[in-house]
């Protein structure tokens, strides 16, 4: 694992003096910044670069040894070739092109479908599965018409009162109500990591598979010309320089009523540094167990404790005997819309260097060993479909849990997101993770643009 273990962090925080009493502050050496950003994934990195462009000083505190979050890239030790197996493509939006252009990174157009031969198989048995129901184009048009009814879904959760009841339906009911059956298969291929798609609340599914994604299906998406999406984060890391504290984690925070600062105790580089910041951006999932070091107050904890999450895992493997240029979509023969019950593989996709990307989801947490064991068993069922495969040889693994954070329809109906939005600025903290919009880099960056304009300019 790339993370500093909790045991090491605990030992460091015990061995080194923590945030000093207020009377001793003038004798301390601090890393003093306008903004401290907790988390160096898609949200935290973008916020850092944009704030620097706005002439504000920043420090990014990231627990891994690199920036990028769910952008996973494997470098083949034999050839040096980069292979993405986390985030793959982006919507072709001016904001996306501007961000990559800031680092002089060339983008190229890509079609998600590519030219691989698609095989639909039930990976519980290896049985081949027939094509999805027809009428996809007409269903997508109906789906798009539904999206245009709720333009405020594009950025954040600024919901009307009352929230439209359609948005609070289980997604399966929403599909049946509006005759969207033909679009379920393509939506499921994009809305990976969300658990049981038919039982998820509709508002989250519409945000994940939004208007910009539908447009991308028609006109194409973009990715780095190098086919290495970590190039963006490597460039950001170089620009931030010492302002990117990698292998670092906040272990405690303090503030004083008459001081305009938040003090963050950060385990980093084998010791503890004290960061002093006027404001703090939280760019990690706002769950209470992940934010203990921020000492959430009762108001914050009451909201964060309501979140549930799904689990999502990305792996890369060599599968001897797996047919080249073949994509396997996991489907089932006897379930609604042929969607496989979880936990399950979503997709096996061909990658350069005879590698295969394997995306896997569950509704409850699983260990790395459990995920790999189940993937192996399911891949071997392909022998029943005529593929002479051997067990996968895993070369990379990434755990994206907790993934989609959701609350109940009743909580949404009763104003949960109004209360969550009201936390922006509370205790000089601002929340900008995917949870505040959706798991889509372009949409995260769009949301952050609105937040920085409103609160930081």
TrEMBL record:
N-terminal signal peptide: 1-17
A Pfam family hit: NAD_binding_8
Coiled coil location: none
Domain of life: Eukaryota
Keywords assigned: Signal
Entries under InterPro entries matching the protein: FAD/NAD-bd_sf (IPR036188)
Keyword Signal: yes
Protein name listed in UniProt: Amine oxidase, flavin-containing superfamily
Organism: Aspergillus avenaceus
């Amino acid at each position: 694992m790339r993370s500093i273990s909790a045991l090491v962090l605990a030992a460091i925080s015990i061995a080194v003096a923590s945030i000093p009493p207020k009377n001793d502050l003038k004798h301390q050496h601090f890393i003093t910044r306008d903004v401290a950003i907790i988390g160096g994934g898609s949200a935290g990195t973008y916020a850092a670069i944009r704030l620097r462009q706005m002439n504000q000083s920043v420090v990014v505190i990231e627990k891994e040894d690199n920036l990028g979050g769910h952008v996973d890239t494997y470098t083949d030790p034999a050839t040096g070739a980069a292979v993405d197996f986390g985030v793959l493509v982006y919507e072709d939006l001016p904001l996306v092109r501007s961000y990559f252009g800031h680092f002089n990174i060339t983008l190229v157009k890509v079609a998600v479908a590519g030219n691989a031969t698609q095989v639909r198989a039930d990976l519980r048995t290896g049985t081949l599965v027939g094509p999805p129901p027809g009428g996809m184009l007409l269903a997508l048009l109906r789906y798009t018409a539904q999206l245009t009814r709720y333009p405020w879904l594009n950025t954040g959760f600024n919901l009307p009162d009352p929230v439209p009841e359609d948005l609070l339906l289980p997604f399966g009911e929403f599909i049946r109500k509006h005759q969207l059956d033909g679009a379920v298969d393509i939506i499921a291929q994009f809305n990976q990591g969300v658990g049981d798609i038919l039982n998820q609340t509709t508002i989250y599914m519409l945000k994940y598979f939004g208007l910009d994604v539908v447009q991308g299906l028609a006109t194409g998406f973009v990715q780095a010309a190098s086919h290495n999406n970590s190039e963006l984060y490597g460039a950001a890391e170089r620009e931030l320089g010492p302002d990117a504290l990698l292998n670092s984690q906040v272990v405690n925070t303090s503030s004083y009523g008459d001081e305009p600062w938040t003090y963050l105790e950060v385990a980093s580089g084998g010791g503890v540094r004290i960061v002093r910041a006027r404001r703090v951006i939280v760019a990690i999932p706002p769950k209470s167990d992940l934010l203990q070091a921020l000492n959430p107050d009762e108001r914050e904890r009451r909201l964060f404790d309501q979140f549930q999450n799904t689990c999502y895992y990305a792996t890369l493997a060599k599968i001897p005997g797996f047919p080249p240029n073949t994509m396997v979509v996991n489907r089932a023969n006897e379930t609604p819309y042929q969607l496989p019950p979880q936990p399950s593989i979503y997709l096996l996709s061909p990658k350069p260097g005879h590698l295969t990307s394997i995306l896997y989801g569950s509704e409850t947490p699983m260990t790395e060993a459990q995920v790999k064991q189940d993937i192996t068993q399911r891949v071997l069922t392909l022998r029943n479909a005529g593929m002479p495969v051997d067990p996968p040889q895993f070369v990379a693994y990434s755990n994206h849990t907790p993934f989609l954070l959701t609350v109940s329809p009743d909580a949404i109906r009763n104003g949960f997101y109004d209360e969550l939005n009201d936390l922006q600025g509370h205790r000089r903290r601002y929340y900008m993770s995917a949870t505040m919009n959706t798991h889509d880099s372009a949409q995260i960056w769009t949301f952050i643009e609105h937040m920085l304009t409103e609160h930081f300019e």
